[in-house]
Amino acid sequence: MIHPTAKLGQNITIKEGTIIGKNVIIEDDVYIDYGCIIRDNVHIKKASFIGARSILGEYLMDFYKDKVNKVHPLVIGENALIRTENVIYGDAVIGDNFQSGHKVTIREGSNIGNNVRIGTLSDIQGHCDIGNYIGIHSNVHIGQKSKINDYVWIFPYVVLTNDPTPPSEVMLGVTIDSFAIIATGSIILPGVHIYEDGFVGAGAVVNRDVPKETVVVGNPAKEICSVRKIKNKVTGEPAYPWRHTFKRGMPWEESDYEIWYNGLNVKGDE
Amino acid sequence: MIHPTAKLGQNITIKEGTIIGKNVIIEDDVYIDYGCIIRDNVHIKKASFIGARSILGEYLMDFYKDKVNKVHPLVIGENALIRTENVIYGDAVIGDNFQSGHKVTIREGSNIGNNVRIGTLSDIQGHCDIGNYIGIHSNVHIGQKSKINDYVWIFPYVVLTNDPTPPSEVMLGVTIDSFAIIATGSIILPGVHIYEDGFVGAGAVVNRDVPKETVVVGNPAKEICSVRKIKNKVTGEPAYPWRHTFKRGMPWEESDYEIWYNGLNVKGDE
Amino acid sequence: MIHPTAKLGQNITIKEGTIIGKNVIIEDDVYIDYGCIIRDNVHIKKASFIGARSILGEYLMDFYKDKVNKVHPLVIGENALIRTENVIYGDAVIGDNFQSGHKVTIREGSNIGNNVRIGTLSDIQGHCDIGNYIGIHSNVHIGQKSKINDYVWIFPYVVLTNDPTPPSEVMLGVTIDSFAIIATGSIILPGVHIYEDGFVGAGAVVNRDVPKETVVVGNPAKEICSVRKIKNKVTGEPAYPWRHTFKRGMPWEESDYEIWYNGLNVKGDE
User: Fold this and answer.
1) For residue range A235-263, what is the model confidence (pLDDT) as tens digits?
2) What is the mean pLDDT of each run of 10 residues along chain B (270 residues)?
3) Could you tell me which of A196, B260, C61, C123 has the fewest CB atoms within 10 Å of its CB?
């Protein structure tokens, strides 16, 4: 069931049971698996894969009053790999090379950059900024007003909160700077700022800012050392800043961080 | 595919792919989105919205023995807004003005009052009582035998447990009194009673009762102060008891708590 | 839509909207509910139930490059009860009498024994070994390289991790020995070994091995006593080792652990 206003490119696969709404644009080489619901005003860029039963352009609250779908565009960048049963709202923008696990929810007002991965069951509550080259693992909850800069890692069951005195109308989002790592199951309290290369240990409850290159652990979280003291368990080499030891999926994958970074500077192309 | 014994009211929308079983009652002005499964003996009251691919009247354990669906009614109150892919079992009752996020599970024996909201991915394990005007946020787990009174707030990733010596056949549910707040990621241990206006801080592991108007934090949770000491970060005014500072979605939304409450007393209608 | 190469046994029920791929084998007395996607090379053994909209034989990463499904078999043992909306990948093996809740994800490389139960929303990340008679409750995250021996209990929101210095290429899985109990919301750090009858308290963050019959609690977890000191809240009898006090679903259900175990030894059949 494809609405006549939809614009379809070349070499598109659409499996049985998919519904495509008004003013949808699907570019070349897109593959849409069984039973997806693509609501109105969704734009899927080229070579993207949409997993079975995903719902794109999901209704915002204003739909439910009169059952009329207002214009809330969703853009999915090129070369996305969206696994099954994602729900992605209208009024959201997702960059190129996006990957998601199963059953991810992304709400309106989410601005997501390029080369972002979001794991199974994660819940992006919207009205947030997520930069580039970010790895968000399974079952992570990103509260509204969060700001996540490039090259951040967030591991399973982390929650970024936003209301300092719940319930209230105040919303103080969490800010995470580049190269920071938020380990499994930690909770970041409203308004906390985690600075560059900060490391939040597993299960930490973080109620104050985390300085640059600092490790915090515990409930409440306390500073314990510099990230530079942590060694890789196998090589014995310093593990952090991780950009010098890890390159899979990063823009410096083909060389190393220093060469890539200096190349950028020398050539002036960033 | 609508079973001939189903009773449908006026002005009903049923989108493609929905299946409606035996003895289903759907009242006026209900909207059922794509691909829902409404199993036998479900009653959906007027003006409710059922999100795409929700499953209502889900099978209990007794179905699986002989693949015969026994009579386990489910009632959904008026004006519900159930988002996509909820699974709600038979033998459950949900009041009016219910709202749920995506992919919520509600099992048999759940008694849910009016004006309750339950967020995306939350899992209500059944055999529990949930009162009125309650906000349960995303990914909350409500164990069997829980009892949640009116005007309670429960934030993401909270778990209410019930077995003090797992695995065992003993079940001691958690009790939460009115106006209590359970912040993100806290775990409430079996049999714990949280009294009126109690506040459980984020990430707390609560192994003993929380007295009235008391703040507890930490693992294990310890009492730190009265809720009356906590100020709103923006206004600087006392934030608790929150019924004096927050009214969105509450019955005193049009006035304030004192006026509403005194009005009730004067008129004797509560 | 059933591919002509599929082999179907006797007395099979397949509800509307189900898709069955190439070289699928479905044995006698299997029931497949509405709208399942059974991809290629899935083998479902007799008397199993597959819940609505489950996806079996889900694509591995190699599919997405050329949109050609390689051979990655999935075997589901006899008498499975898989509830709705599970996603189970190819290259996995699940034993007999498996039960799962709703919306469970099981990835490639999962080796799961007999009589295992996995609760709603749990996420088995694959490349892991899960033995027999294991109870994994709701919303549990089992990281790659985990090894879980027979008769283990894992309660809601537990996470088994594997990367000691994230992000890195090192993976040190968690090992859990028989009869151990991992209570709600605990996080087990990479490479930790929990020995027989170990007990991890709710909300613990476990960064070192847990000796046999030892209780650990807190963040970071500390040893507090022997499991033999914990009494059942109702009977007042010692609650652990639990195999002497709990038998539901266990192979000694019809007698008790001692009789069953001694019977095995005497007969030499284990």
Assistant:
1) 999 999 999 999 999 999 998 999 999 98
2) 96 97 98 98 98 98 96 98 98 98 98 98 98 98 98 98 96 98 98 98 98 98 98 92 96 94 67
3) C61
Give every CB contact of residue B236 below 8 A, 6+ residues apart in sequence.
none
Query: C243 CB near a chain B CB, below 8 Å?
Result: no
B135-167 b/e with 16+ CB inside 10 Å = b?
Answer: bbbbbbbbbbbbbbbbbbbbbbbbbbbbbbbbb
Q: How far apart are CA B210 and CA C166, in angstroms?
A: 37
Residue A56 lies in a domain: yes
Q: Is residue A1 part of a domain?
A: no
Q: Are residues A165 and A146 in the same domain?
A: yes
| ipTM surpasses 0.85 | yes
Domain identity same for A48 and A134: yes
Question: C267, exposed or middle or buried, with CB in 10 Å at 0-12, 13-18, 19+?
Answer: exposed
Same domain, B248 and B145: no
Task: Render A163-186 in DSSP notation, one character per residue.
Answer: -SSSSSS-----EE-TT-EE-TT-
pLDDT at position A126 over 50: yes
Q: Which domain holds residue A119?
A: 7-234
Q: Is C17 on the interface with A (CB under 8 A)?
A: yes
* Contact present, B124 and B108 (Cβ < 8 Å): no
Q: Which residue in chain B has the smallest CA separation from A143?
A: B156
Q: Which pTM value belongs to this model?
A: 0.97
Are B164 and B69 contained in the same domain? yes
Short-list B54, B43, B42, B152, CA closest to B101: B54
Look at residue C234 in the predicted model and tell me its pLDDT: 87
- Which of C182, C184, C234, C243 is the best mutation test for B, with the most CBs of B within 10 A? C184
CATH number at residue A77: 2.160.10.10
In a domain? residue C204: yes
B85 touching A, CB under 8 A?
yes
What residue ranges of chain C have pLDDT lower than 50?
269-270
Count CB neighbours of C13 within 10 A. Answer: 12
Which chains are within 8 Å of C by 3+ CB pairs? A, B
Please give the pLDDT value at position A233: 84
* Chain A residues in contact with B120 (beta carbon < 8 A): 105, 123
The SS3 assignment for C199 reads strand
* A1 vs B contacts (CB less than 8 Å): 16
Question: Coil, helix or strand for A122?
Answer: coil
Q: Find, in chain A, the residue whose alpha carbon is nearest to that of B50.
A: A64
- What pLDDT was estimated at residue A265? 62
Q: Which of C53, C39, A92 is nearest to B86 (CA)?
A: C53
pLDDT digits (tens, 9 = 90+) for A130-164: 999 999 999 999 999 999 999 999 999 999 999 99
Structural domain count, chain C: 2
Query: Do residues A187 and A270 share a domain?
Result: no
Question: Is B208 in the same domain as B94?
Answer: yes
Q: Is residue A53 part of a domain?
A: yes
The answer to whether the beta carbons of residues B128 and B109 sit under 8 Å apart is yes
Same domain (yes/no): B56, B156: yes
